[in-house]
Amino acid sequence: MILKTILLFGVAPPYINALALKPIFFTKPISTKSLKESEERRFNCCSRRALISSVLVPAVISLQAPHSQAKIIEGQGSMIEINDPDTYSGLVYVPKSASNNNGKKLPILFVLHGAGKNEKDVWNLANVNGEHAGLIPSLLASGQAPPELYENFIVVAPYSKDKASFYEEPRSKLLQFMRFAISADGGGAQGVDVNIIDLDRKFLFGFSDGATLGVEIMTTRKFAGGVFAAYGFTGRLPKLALERLKGLPMWIFHSADDGTQCSFISFAG
Amino acid sequence: MRNADLSHHFLFSIVIFPVACSDQLVRDLRADAQENKIVYSRFDKDQEGFEGSVKGHSTGITASKDKEIYKWLLSL
Hints:
The complex is a heterodimer of chains A (about 270) and B (about 80).
Chain A: E1 4-8, H1 16-19, E2 26-30, H2 32-54, E3 70-73, E4 77-83, E5 89-95, E6 106-112, H3 136-141, H4 147-150, E7 154-159, H5 171-181, E8 197-207, H6 209-218, E9 225-229, H7 239-245, E10 250-255, E11 266-267
Parallel strand pairs in A: 6-7, 6-8, 8-9, 9-10
Antiparallel strand pairs in A: 1-2, 1-11, 3-4, 4-5, 5-7
Chain B: H1 19-32, E1 38-43, H2 59-64, H3 67-75
């Protein structure tokens, strides 16, 4: 039997930067027959990714042309684009109530999208027909978000343009973008009223790749809580990571029929 | 982040995540938590009606439109 090695989790696993641990790879041998089957699964996975984009919610409100300065969501708030030349672009949503909130500060929710092509501009995140449709930015932009969200949270959604996901780049770059977004000379200089942000209530939301990354970033203990859907690290969290996550509130979402047809697999060359 | 020394070995990376990933995460977090602050919404089937190869990979949408998560975050 010809054996080949599959490296499950082809990317360096979480915590390498944050916790200075060595990467952990999970290996198992497979036959050439299994390899062919895996390649077929790979193809299906690619199709799956495309299908996710194609079957999502119908358009309710068409977005303005790319690079528009702001999108007003009637009765709810506004969304603008910010750009950090050193890291990422992103969308920032601010509730309408923030303008007459009598100085009350609002929590901020950072949204980390899942993997995709990400070839379009940052408004791709808010496109109800786009590859990230159905997630928080598109719900807000289309007026479909629940009031508990659109009335109470400032939302910042970075965009991994031309990268499949944030997983392809250093965690420090993402954290740098977050700092930029809430700083006076960063997001503040590009239209975000950073004075209304409650810096003690920074939260994370992540889906798929964004969830895996989000849990990792939670280990920095810079966030007061997080919501993560379809988390994807196949190994066990190291003890140090668990210590850093101790006591942090997290809400995990997953469906039992997720990933039953495909697996996260990378092949060694 | 890819490991710079190994990245050339990987021909591709596909990310579809089975529920076992979250099951393990929740077990570890709950085992280590001094007080239980971990909430787990584990669905038996896709809540958005996805079918075929995308079936099950829609919990990001389910969570995004769930008003309870925002109430929960506000309560923290």
